[in-house]
Design brief:
The protein has 105 residues and is an all-alpha fold. 92% of the residues lie in helices and 0% in strands. It is rod-shaped, with a radius of gyration of 41 Å. The termini are far apart.
Length: 105
């Protein structure tokens, strides 16, 4: 009976040692993860990840607004140029028509 109890105790000790090794591995991994998370937070100004994301969102909005402004400006300038050209052509045509009619009389 003692021999059986001794084997059971040995098996229990082996299991406990294996669990301890697993626990130590988990603890080691958690420590590494904590260090990685700290480095991640330290990478942002004032450890403010949300503020940093907001800052970039605002930069994107500003860039989009700038792009829209310049696109609209180019459209309006092109439109004004086209209207000016058409006006000039219409005026020139009317002027030439007036000259032609004047020569016929």
């Amino acid at each position: 009976m003692q021999h059986q109890e001794r084997r059971e105790d040995d098996a229990l000790i082996v299991q406990l040692m294996a669990q301890q090794r697993q626990f130590e591995e988990v603890l080691k991994n958690l420590t590494v993860m904590q260090e990685q998370v700290k480095r991640l937070y330290d990478a942002f100004p004032a450890n403010d990840i949300e503020g940093h994301a907001y800052y970039h969102a605002e930069l994107i909005k500003a860039a989009e607004a700038r792009t829209a402004f310049w696109g609209r400006l180019m459209f309006e300038l092109t439109k004004a140029g086209a209207i000016g050209l058409l006006t000039f052509l219409a005026y020139s045509a009317l002027h030439e028509l007036g000259n032609f009619i004047g020569r016929i009389k």
